[in-house]
Amino acid sequence: MSCDGGGIKAVLGLIGIFKKYASKDQDTDHLNKSELKELLQKEFPGLIAVSEPFFQSVKNVNKIMAALDHDKDGQVDIQEYFVTLCALGIGMSKGGAGCQKKK
Predict the structure, then answer these.
(1) Which of 26, 75, 95, 101 could form an S-S bond across to 30 if both were Cys, CB 3.0 to 4.6 Å?
(2) What is the mean pLDDT of residues 85-93?
């Protein structure tokens, strides 16, 4: 399979992001709460600002984890990660959301 297309590169990039954060402990197939929090803060800063009190609360991090953790095993696997990204993409496409360019 050729990896030259933009779509393939985008998917491989998303896989790379998952693996980067999941590999911070011995379980490289799942994101725990702290790995998920760091991934969201660093890779999706426009969605969840680091300074927002909502995201700083452990209670609210638990809510985010619960929403993403479809099988309720206390961690997020790659399938749950991609389902969430697909839902995010659909929402962004309907709302016309985009990223602002840095000045």
Answers:
(1) 75
(2) 80
Residue 35, domain extent: 28-92
Q: What is the reported pLDDT for 98?
A: 58
Q: What b/e string do you get for 21-35 counting C-beta neighbours within 10 Å, with b at 16 or more?
A: bbeeeeeeebbbbeb
* CATH (domain of 56): 1.10.238.10
The pTM assigned to this predicted structure is 0.76
Torsion sign over Cα 28, 30, 34, 38: positive
Residue with tokens 């496409």: 93
46-70 residue pLDDT tens: 665 554 555 555 666 777 788 889 9
Distance CA 66, CA 3 (A): 34
Task: Please state the separation of Cα 52 from the chain's center in Å.
Answer: 17
